[in-house]
Amino acid sequence: MNLNMHSVESLVAQIQGLSGNIGELTQLRSYLKHCDDLLRTESTRLAPLLTELDPSVHSLGYLYILEACTSAPLSKDQANELVLSIARFINVCAAEQIRLAPEKFISICKRFKEQVVLLDDPMRGVAPLLTSIRKLQSSTEQLTTLHPDFMLLCLLSKCYKIGLSVLEDDVFEIDQPRDLFLYCYYGGMICIGQKQFRKALELLHNVVTAPMPIISAIAVEAYKKYILVSLIHLGQFATSFPKYTSSAAQRNLKNFSQSYLDLVNNYSIGKVSEVEKCVQINKDTFESDNNLGLVKQVVSSMYKRNIQRLTQTYLTLSLQDIANTVQLNSPKEAEMHVLQMIQEGDIYATINQKDGMVRFLEDPEQYKTCEMIERLDLSIQRIMMLSKKLTTMNEVMSCDPSYLGKVGRERQRFDYDDFDTVHSKFNI
Amino acid sequence: MDFSTLNEALAFKSYDKVADICDSLMFQAASEGVSFQEDWPYAIHLIGHIYVNDINSARFLWKKIPLAVKESQQEVSTAWKIGQRLWIKDYASVHEAIREFIWSPQCQGIMSAFSEMYTKRMFELLQSAYSTISIQDTALFLGMNEDDATNYAVQHGWAVDPTSRMLTVTKQAVVTEQKLDHSILQQLTEYVFHLEH
């Protein structure tokens, strides 16, 4: 069946007529699904149809046609036009309508991202992809498959701050596991760029410990960065994995990160010169992994660690002694380091320039203020919310057939009375 | 490009909003495929980031600025110089960089607001970190000459020893009003009760 003039008009008419409410839209969606093959074969002739539709009102129909149009390969000029038209569509489309055909929407957004990267102008895609995420999500707790694409564009265009704003959302629902790996890896890199090491550590930890039957390149790279960020933020690295890490990760990740583990060993000894030697030896590996900048930050964090270690032994210490112990060049340098640490809250101390001494102090926080109460309050509310979510998830899972099937199979291992209520159909 | 939101913010002295406004205007321009780099107000954009102490974003913005603009627009490179010095924590030279340039009318307001804020911030840092400090260093940190620095410090309660040219820091007892909202205490009591049952 060819898409002749009559069919084209009826297609447009159908879209225009059936875009009024959810009932009509569902009808329209089945109609469009029927026409899908047609749209694909006639894709080169569809562009003029778009001019007869309003993307904000006829979003679903417009989406189908746009997606069919864009499936063909393009020249550079056409790519520019395409990027513009998709960006405009994303901005004005109606969220409820595009959510009726999420695969189509995702398909044009992915195409959009590809073209933007090919045009070497990733910043063009940042704002539209953010809009598309917000329109596609059913809530801010859902991680869509577009999230990692957005993160990638933020990284490529060096627009880290806007990436951070999305990372602040807590994720409870994921469309595909692969999305989580990429999202957390890219997200970790964005946090590193904004020097938010605590959050970076959390995200990279997720990649390393997520369930995986076999390890992936993403997990390997994430592990390397995880080691470095752990050194910068915590001053140490625990080589043992948490219990919930997959066995594949536990067995294999370390094999790919030998240089990094050497760095950990030298770091824990505490001598800056040794660490710098280790960096020199492994420089090529660090460079080809694009981690040299991070490694340098590890080295400079050593001065901070070493000064912090001094607070455990001394109440007061001269600037000269600090400089000697920590391998700095002069008491003035030591003074500047201590000043910076005081500013960033890494140490509690006062500098006495007259005597050239530093006095180390206790944390002055008394936990008695209104701000503390507010913080406690917020934390408790968060935990209560999390606890409720976990209970709901547990309940949903205990009704899941595949879970019950496994439990049924394992039945012999447990006391019969515990699983009395499991239907015999599950006893395989 | 419509910069009216930016100009409004500048007119109302909402300097802390400048960076966010510039960022969203830039994304808008980029997504429309418009070539905006030549006319973009990079100087004010950079200063906006510096004003809210987001030197990371200022760094990334600097990396994106085309070389031609960096070389021709001196205000942009001077604004970056300030960011750079803040980045490497060269506290004293920040004042120099602010002072040695005659800022355009658009940047004048935010620059002087930043300068004041920075001096105050430096003073608070000195107050929290030092028990005694030389007049010379104080002057450097505050970007004033030694006499002005001494007067500023004395006004804030510090003691001066003219012979050794040293200032003794006195921390003002900071009295933050502890307004105890009884409902919060009630809530906490309820939590504890809930947890124990």
Automatic annotation (TrEMBL), chain A:
Under PROSITE patterns, the record lists: PCI (PS50250)
Signal peptide (from-to):
none
* PCI domain ranges (all copies): 196-365
This protein's GO cellular component annotations are: COP9 signalosome; cytoplasm
Q: By its UniProt entry, which Pfam families does this protein fall under? A: COP9_hel_rpt, PCI
Alphabetically list the UniProt keywords: Cytoplasm, Nucleus, Signalosome
Record-linked Gene3D superfamilies: 1.25.40.570
Query: What does the UniProt entry say about where the protein is found?
Result: Cytoplasm; Nucleus
At the top level, the lineage of the source is: Eukaryota
What SUPFAM superfamilies does the database record attribute to this sequence? Answer: Winged helix' DNA-binding domain
Instruction: Reply yes or no: does the keyword Hydrolase apply.
Output: no
What InterPro entries is this protein classified in?
COP9_N (IPR055089), CSN3 (IPR050756), PCI_dom (IPR000717), WH_DNA-bd_sf (IPR036390)
Family according to the record: Belongs to the CSN3 family.
Instruction: Write the protein's name.
Output: COP9 signalosome complex subunit 3
Tell me which species this is from.
Answer: Salvia divinorum
Q: Which gene encodes it?
A: CSN3
UniProtKB/TrEMBL annotation, chain B:
Q: Which domain of life is it from?
A: Eukaryota
Which keywords describe this protein according to UniProt? Cytoplasm, Nucleus, Signalosome
The residues covered by the CSN8/PSMD8/EIF3K domain are 39-174
Cellular-component GO terms for this entry? COP9 signalosome; cytoplasm
Query: Where in the cell does this protein reside?
Result: Cytoplasm; Nucleus
Q: Which InterPro entries match?
A: COP9_CSN8, CSN8_PSD8_EIF3K
* Name under which the protein is recorded: COP9 signalosome complex subunit 8
